[in-house]
From TrEMBL:
It holds the Pfam family NDK. This is Nucleoside diphosphate kinase. Keywords: ATP-binding, Kinase, Nucleotide-binding, Transferase. GO terms for molecular function: ATP binding; nucleoside diphosphate kinase activity. Belongs to the NDK family. SUPFAM superfamilies: Nucleoside diphosphate kinase, NDK. Residues 5-143 form the Nucleoside diphosphate kinase-like domain. GO terms for biological process: CTP biosynthetic process; GTP biosynthetic process; UTP biosynthetic process.
Length: 200
């Protein structure tokens, strides 16, 4: 049976950036896939744009100061029901509440208080679409079925080089086609690093 893979956004805020590696591993252990990641030092203008729906709040200047006080890490995550799953995994926005209601949540572990809560995540599909687009303008945001996700991966990562190899295989017609193709793929792997020799 097919299923839907959603994408969502998580931000590790400046006050939790020291725990970024632990948080990323916790996210992976919870079954999320990190599709893209960017470490950014936001400007005042970027924070104002990202949080423009909060501009009327009396503490908005503190939000701008907080989010520009150090680098943040923005990540696109994917998983079945990713948006709802991540909201639950992060826990209530107030870490004090999170420590009571969901002590294993990320905000319970890494948040300080309701203002310095360590992490942000998209709450709805529309939020995810807007927020992913803000940090990753070229990202495909619409949710994909599990089969569609696999198809796109194969088309991008495997089919181009495999078609070349199979074409050459048909020309060569070796006695052991599987061994020949395996060796050909190893020799022509586009991801093999290029080693440049220098004269010393």
């Amino acid at each position: 049976m097919d299923y839907i893979i959603e994408k969502t956004l998580v931000i590790i805020k400046p006050d939790a950036i020291a725990h970024a590696n632990e948080i990323e591993w916790a996210i992976i252990d919870a079954g999320f896939t990190i599709l893209n990641k960017s470490r950014i030092l936001l400007t005042d203008e970027q924070v104002i744009e990202f949080y423009k729906d909060q501009e009327d709040n009396e503490d908005f200047s503190k939000v701008v100061e907080y989010m520009t006080s150090g680098p943040i890490i923005a990540m696109i995550l994917s998983k079945k029901d990713a948006i709802k799953s991540l909201v639950e995994f992060l826990g209530p926005s107030d870490p004090d509440v999170a420590r009571v209601e969901n002590p294993k949540s990320l905000r319970a572990k890494y948040g300080k208080n309701a203002f310095y809560n360590g992490l942000h995540c998209s709450l709805t599909f529309e939020d995810a679409k807007k927020e992913i687009g803000f940090f990753f303008s070229n990202a495909i945001i619409d949710p994909l079925s599990g089969r569609e996700e696999v198809r796109l991966f194969l088309e991008k990562e495997l089919y181009p080089i495999l078609v070349l190899g199979l074409t050459q295989l048909c020309k060569e017609k070796p006695e052991d086609p599987i061994l020949w193709l395996g060796n050909w793929l190893l020799k022509n792997n586009p991801n093999t690093p290029i080693i440049v020799e220098t004269d010393e």
